[in-house]
Amino acid sequence: MHIKEIATELKRIPLKTPFITALRRVENVEFVRVKIECDNGFVAFGEAPATMAITGEDLPIITASIESLKNALLSQTPRNALALLRDSKVGSSAKAALDMAFVSLLAQEKGLELYEYLGAPKKLDVQTDITISLNATETMIKDARDACESGLYILKIKLGGDISHAIATTKAIAKELPEAKLLIDANQAWSLEESLAYVNAVTDVKIELLEQPVKADDLAALKIITNATDIPILADEAAFTLSDVKKIVESKSADMINVKLMKCGGLTKAVEILEYAREMNVKCMLGSMLEGPISINAAMNLAMAYADVIKYVDL
Predict the structure, then answer these.
(1) Would residue 162 show up in a list of annotated catalytic residues for this protein?
(2) Which residue of the set 95, 156, 158, 269 is catalytic?
(3) Distance between CA atoms of 145 and 297, rounded to whole angstroms?
(4) Which of 47, 67, 164, 170 is deepest in the core (most CB within 10 A)?
(5) Which among 290, 314, 311 has a CA at the least distance from the CA of 300?
(6) Rg for the chain (alpha carbons), in Å?
(7) Which element (helix H / strand E) includes 182?
(8) Which listed residue (57, 211, 244, 255) is catalytic?
């Protein structure tokens, strides 16, 4: 089986409600879809969204990156293509789109579903959280209530730089919806002092985790927060690669790791991180970045294979 054709197209899906965090506001899911055809008739797809605020890649960059690799990848086997992709200099999102397509082809070659190829003995139900975007407290309470009434009780609460608003909103949602599980995500919006003020102010609230409260490169501050609270601290923007993850785990700077295909470069690299996390007994979140359906499906298959490691699914 050799790669015969690689083609890209841009796709856009309107969101039902805007996605608002401390870093960005998004009203549409926009992504590059790559289609790979092989000489034996097998076809596979991959996707990568515009993630300039996180990975430094917009749609033109992702498209250009894939185009720049096309000549090297054509006529290769999917396994050889993966090796070439690993050593390339393109961004992590472009790598992720190609990687998930190549891995899909390898699964097809063995006659396996993707979750089977990744190591899951059977198909599993995967329960995801739902994002409650940053907004006025009253709006966030309403959105959270609507989610719970729809049967979605794991809430990813996006908070911003106003620490008073963050504390008040957390307490209000917890009081209004005691049955909900609250995953708090500050998206690097807080200082060390603000983070400590927050965790000290919400000691009476049941919080599942606090995600990336401080800047990604400030592991020293992240470690102080981790040591200062019983709330599990989740590293997200600080953890792109396996090397990043090892640094965080070995320094005990956070309790958990958020693994995202677009950050690490696809299924192949995510597996390396999850295998390490399994070895070190570190729980993970499997996250996403407003991705298209094919990319989300790839992540769901990964969640089935690492259900013992992935404690929360954010798809």
Answers:
(1) no
(2) 158
(3) 27
(4) 47
(5) 314
(6) 20
(7) strand 181-185
(8) 211
Cα 236–Cα 184–Cα 215 angle in degrees, nearest 5: 40
Q: Exactly one of 156, 260, 263, 269 is catalytic; which is it?
A: 260
* Tens of pLDDT, residues 251-262: 999 999 999 999
250 sits in which H/E element: helix 242-251
Closest CA to 44 of 32, 34, 55, 54: 34
φ and ψ at 72, to 5 degrees? Answer: -75, -30
Token pair in block for residue 312: 């929360």
Rounded to the nearest integer, the mean pLDDT of the chain is 97
pTM of the model: 0.96
What's the confidence (pLDDT) of residue 25? 87
Active site residue 260: yes
Would you call 158 a catalytic residue per the annotation? yes
Q: Look up residue 305 and give its two tokens.
A: 């294979």
Instruction: Give the count of alpha carbons within 13 A of 47, CB side only.
Output: 20
Average pLDDT over residues 203-218: 98
Sign of CA dihedral 168, 183, 47, 16: negative
